[in-house]
Amino acid sequence: MTKNGELRDFLRTRRARLRPEDVGIRAAGRRRVPGLRREEVAMLAGVSLDYYTRLEQGRRNLQPSGQVLDAIARALRLTEVERMYLHNLARSATVASEPERPRLAPLDAGTRLMLDGLGIPAIVVDVRGDVHAANRLGRALLPGLEPGATTRAGCSSTPRRAPCCPTGR
Questions:
Q1: What is the Cα–Cα distance from 148 to 134, expressed in whole angstroms?
Q2: Is the pTM of this model over 0.70?
Q3: Closest by alpha carbon to 49, among 60, 38, 57?
């Protein structure tokens, strides 16, 4: 599933779990689907119905601000973990729709030999956090950070902070 699809499904399921009465809206008439209507979420979040609809549909050209995402999170009564997940999904959906940047070339034989000959753990990571290579000690110290994995932004190998965690592709 694409990141846009994940964002769409996340917003739809969170909207469906709320009843109008939960947010102080009087339900008038029969509803075809459970939960809040899109226009109700948009009204509660203070965004236009068109914008919320495009966001929920996973349109690629949207770049919602943090304030808009926080307003939607409040409207949907998201937990702090869900709010952070919404921000990550929206950011990932935006990044995923950008043109692919060129990747680093595979390591040449000399660099690979040097990396494998180091007596310390070593991992080659580019500025986006994509792992390109690791020696045996690096793979043993940080399992999951194999070539092709992506490190989580803001992770640290400092013992006082959170350890690096792979997020996969």
A1: 11
A2: no
A3: 38
Instruction: Supply 110's token pair.
Output: 């000399």
In DSSP terms, which residues pair with 124 in a beta bridge?
133
Residue 7 token pair: 């964002």
**What are the tens digits of pLDDT across the range 97-123?**
445 555 566 777 888 888 888 888 888
DSSP code, position 127: T
Name the burial class of residue 9, with classes exposed (0-12), middle (13-18) and buried (19+) by CB atoms within 10 angstroms of its CB. Answer: middle
* CA separation, residue 49 to residues 72, 105, 116 (Å): 12, 45, 56
Q: Which long-range contacts (CB under 8 A, 24 or more apart) does 29-37 make?
A: none
Query: Which residues make beta-bridge pairs with 134?
Result: 123
Distances (CA, A) of 77 to 7, 18, 53, 144, 160: 16, 8, 18, 34, 33
First to last CA, the chain: 12
| Pair 52, 46: CB distance under 8 Å | no
% of the chain residues with pLDDT over 90 = 20
